[in-house]
């Protein structure tokens, strides 16, 4: 009984804190925002707890509850001062016959959610890195009460950040025992909240039916669902990197600053989840900022740069702590930037690329996802509709894949590259696949919501990528309908 | 329209992976409706466009692929649940430990013998090819601290499948304090690091 109550209270803290953060961005949240609120709460609370830990104080449950109350406060006191936000609520209307397919997809997703949560309650901690690294650190946080170098330096990957161990350690504190089975519930909830959050955001852009179909597709992607019950850091980092990419793409499309606010929080959570978050965020920030270029510069380029810098600032405490303790990366990252790398190590690079592509391109693992993404990108480029979102959806996954190729190429694992790939590539590729899957409905939205256009000859030239989706939003906001610039 | 097109397709087309008969047709129908919904949404003006056709095709694909995976995924998760339920987390941890060469009873004996502020080093024999015993020993024996790098820093030496080991570089072992079975023992470290 204590386990159930503790688990419920723990996750309600995330939910409440998330609604508090949400209220800062767009006022009162709806029930349908629960997925988004949960992930915001996980990010905000656990980053706060992790920062405290790097300052020498590993918080217990009372401090966690106080922090939750602090984050909830804006939702209680500042509703009236919330910034105006685009409506993400479904219109209230009478049921229609077309709602039946929505219900069918919804029931299918709910059935899978049920079996996933039910399994996560009894799932044993079998994955090697789970007990050797992530749960080990979670237990150390409780037992030692500080970031003792004894464990964080001695165990594998001492440089891995704290969000996932914090997630597990507070679960242990709230349920009153180090129950390595029940802790899997947190991973199931993160996966379900992620799908719910994205479906909520895209449903007003592509329709509820398409969002529901997408939800089921992503939940059942074998490359994703196989990793959810493993209690590792790969799913949290993939989820938060994907949400960072989605919110940045929404900024590219709609140019609302609140999306950059979400990008900052989710990006910081990705960095605090696992080292792979660094490469993902670097690529998202660089590609996104380049695609944001437009006039006026201060309004289009400076905000994403500031948001990306804020992510780095939020991660500074961990960088400072690892530096102060002399904990370095387990591979020489600067070697990957050497221009001659791909020439000298081309065999390893090609081998790594083949292995990673054998995961991502496998139709039974990622269900044709790269090809569907490619098709949407090609259509957008051919028709010159939503070019920025299309390029972002292409370049971010490709760039992340390339970064993993470099990382595997420069790896110095004593057991060899083959062993390293065999034991990690199927997990690491989750980030690439999930980012592509998350951007898929936004690409659809860009295609579906494109305003009517004249013939192709009247399209803007490649040098004038002031995209129509951006202009479209500006037109809608403006009381005067203006013609496109010549 | 897409539903009508799907219905006119030859019967073999209903061989949705993992599904047959009415389930396959239902899956196909739902996917077609989803695709049609996307296409209708895209039609802001009369006539079909490349955008609407591509969007409809992608939505059809993701709906079909998602639905076709549903039954298999439900069955797999259900089977895993029935295989795992009824086993306590401690028992499950013991099973995992056994798979990597750790005996939970041996660990329990170590926990009684090594004081809570003790520092130990795990000396594994040549048959042990993984770091599993080291990791599980640290996990189970917290707050005791495992020494990973220099055995001379540890006061206690844990032998795991290390028959005849006693000549670790720079370390002399005392008489075994715990002898569990051949190769599994706990001994004091008689040496200290000189630097």
Give a structural overview.
- The complex is a heterodimer of chains A (486) and B (195).
- Chain A is mainly alpha-helical and 486 residues long.
- Chain A is 71% helix and 0% strand.
- In chain A, α8 runs antiparallel to α9, α9 packs antiparallel against α21 and α13 runs antiparallel to α20.
- Chain A is globular.
- With 195 residues, chain B is α/β, with parallel strands linked by helices.
- Chain B has six helices and five strands.
- In chain B, strands 2-1-3-5-4 form a five-stranded mixed beta sheet.
- In chain B, α6 links the parallel β1 and β2.
- The longest helix of chain B is centred in the middle third of the chain and has 35 residues.
- Chain B starts with a helix and ends in a 6-residue tail after the last strand.
- Chains A and B meet through α4, α5, α9, α19 and α21 of A and α2, α3, α4, α6 and β2 of B.
Oligomeric state: heterodimer
Low-confidence residue ranges of chain A: 80-89, 452-486
Strand content of chain B: 5-15%
SSE arrangement of chain A, N to C: HHHHHHHHHHHHHHHHHHHHHH
Return the average pLDDT of chain A rounded to an integer.
Answer: 85
- State the helical fraction of chain B: 40-55%
Class by SSE composition of chain A: mainly alpha
- Provide the low-confidence segments of chain B as ranges: 9-15
- Trace the largest sheet of chain B across and list its strands: 2-1-3-5-4
Name the chain pair whose interface involves the most residues.
A-B, 65 and 55 residues
- The helix/strand series of chain B, from N terminus to C terminus, equals HHHHHEHEEEE
Rg of chain B to the nearest angstrom?
Answer: 31 Å
* Principal-axis shape of chain A: globular
Mean pLDDT value of chain B: 79
Distance between the termini of chain A: 68 Å
SS element count, helices of chain B: 6
N-end to C-end Cα span of chain B: 82 Å
Largest sheet data of chain B: 5 strands, mixed
Radius of gyration of chain A: 22 Å
């Amino acid at each position: 009984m204590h386990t159930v109550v503790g688990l419920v209270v723990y996750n309600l803290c995330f939910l409440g804190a998330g609604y508090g953060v949400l209220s800062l961005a767009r006022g009162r949240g709806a029930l349908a925002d629960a997925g988004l609120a949960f992930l915001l709460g996980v990010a905000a609370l656990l980053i706060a707890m992790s920062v405290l830990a790097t300052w020498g104080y590993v918080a217990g449950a009372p401090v966690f509850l106080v922090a939750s109350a602090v984050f909830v406060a804006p939702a209680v006191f500042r509703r009236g001062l919330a910034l105006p936000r685009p409506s993400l609520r479904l219109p209230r209307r009478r049921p229609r016959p077309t709602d039946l397919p929505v219900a069918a997809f919804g029931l299918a997703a709910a059935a899978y959610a049920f079996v996933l949560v039910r399994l996560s309650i009894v799932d044993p901690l079998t994955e090697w890195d789970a007990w050797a690294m992530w749960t080990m650190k979670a237990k150390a946080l409780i037992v030692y009460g500080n970031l003792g170098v004894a464990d964080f330096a001695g165990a594998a990957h001492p440089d891995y950040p704290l969000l996932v161990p914090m997630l597990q350690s507070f679960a242990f504190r709230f349920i009153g025992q180090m129950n390595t089975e029940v802790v899997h519930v947190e991973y199931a909830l993160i996966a379900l909240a992620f799908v719910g959050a994205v479906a909520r955001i895209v449903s007003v852009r592509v329709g509820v039916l398409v969002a529901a179909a997408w939800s089921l597709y992503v939940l059942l992607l074998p490359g994703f669902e196989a990793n959810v019950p493993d209690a590792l850091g790969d799913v949290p980092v993939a989820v938060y990197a994907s949400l960072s990419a989605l919110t940045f793409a929404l900024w590219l499309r709609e140019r609302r600053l609140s999306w950059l606010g979400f990008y900052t929080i989710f990006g910081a959570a990705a960095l605090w989840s696992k080292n792979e978050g660094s490469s993902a965020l670097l690529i998202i920030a660089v590609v996104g900022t380049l695609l944001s270029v437009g006039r006026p510069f201060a309004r289009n380029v400076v905000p994403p740069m500031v948001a990306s810098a804020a992510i780095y600032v939020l991660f500074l405490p961990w960088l400072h702590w690892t530096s102060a303790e002399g904990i370095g990366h387990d591979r020489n990252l600067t070697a990957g930037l050497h221009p001659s790398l791909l020439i000298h190590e081309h065999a390893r690079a090609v081998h790594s690329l083949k292995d990673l592509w054998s995961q991502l391109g496998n139709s039974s693992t990622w269900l044709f996802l790269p090809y569907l993404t490619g098709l949407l990108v090609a259509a957008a480029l051919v028709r010159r509709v939503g070019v920025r979102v299309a390029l972002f959806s292409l370049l971010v996954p490709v760039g992340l894949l390339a970064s993993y190729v470099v990382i595997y190429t420069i790896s110095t694992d004593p057991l060899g590259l083959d062993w390293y790939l065999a034991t990690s590539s199927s997990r690491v590729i989750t980030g690439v696949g999930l980012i592509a899957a998350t951007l898929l409905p936004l690409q659809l939205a860009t295609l579906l919501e494109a305003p009517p256009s004249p013939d192709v000859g009247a399209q803007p030239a490649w040098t004038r990528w002031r995209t129509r989706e951006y202009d479209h939003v500006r037109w809608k906001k403006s009381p005067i309908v203006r013609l496109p610039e010549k | 329209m897409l539903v009508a097109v799907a219905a006119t397709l030859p019967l073999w087309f209903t061989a949705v992976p993992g599904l047959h008969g009415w389930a396959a047709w239902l899956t196909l129908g739902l996917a077609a409706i989803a695709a049609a919904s996307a296409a209708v949404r895209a039609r802001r003006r009369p006539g079909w466009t490349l955008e609407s056709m591509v969007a409809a095709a992608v939505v059809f694909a993701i709906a079909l692929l998602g639905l076709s995976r549903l039954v298999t995924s439900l069955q797999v998760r259900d089977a895993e649940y029935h295989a795992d339920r009824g086993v306590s987390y401690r028992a499950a941890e013991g099973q995992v430990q056994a798979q990597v060469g750790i005996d939970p009873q041996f660990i329990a004996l170590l926990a009684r013998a090594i004081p809570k502020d003790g520092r130990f080093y795990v000396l594994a024999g040549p048959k042990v090819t993984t770091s599993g015993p080291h990791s599980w020993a640290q996990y189970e024996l917290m707050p005791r601290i495992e020494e990973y790098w220099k055995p001379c820093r540890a006061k206690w030496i844990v032998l795991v499948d290390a028959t005849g080991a006693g000549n670790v570089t720079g370390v002399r072992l005392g008489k075994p304090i715990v002898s569990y079975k051949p190769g599994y023992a706990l001994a004091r470290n008689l040496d200290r690091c000189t630097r």
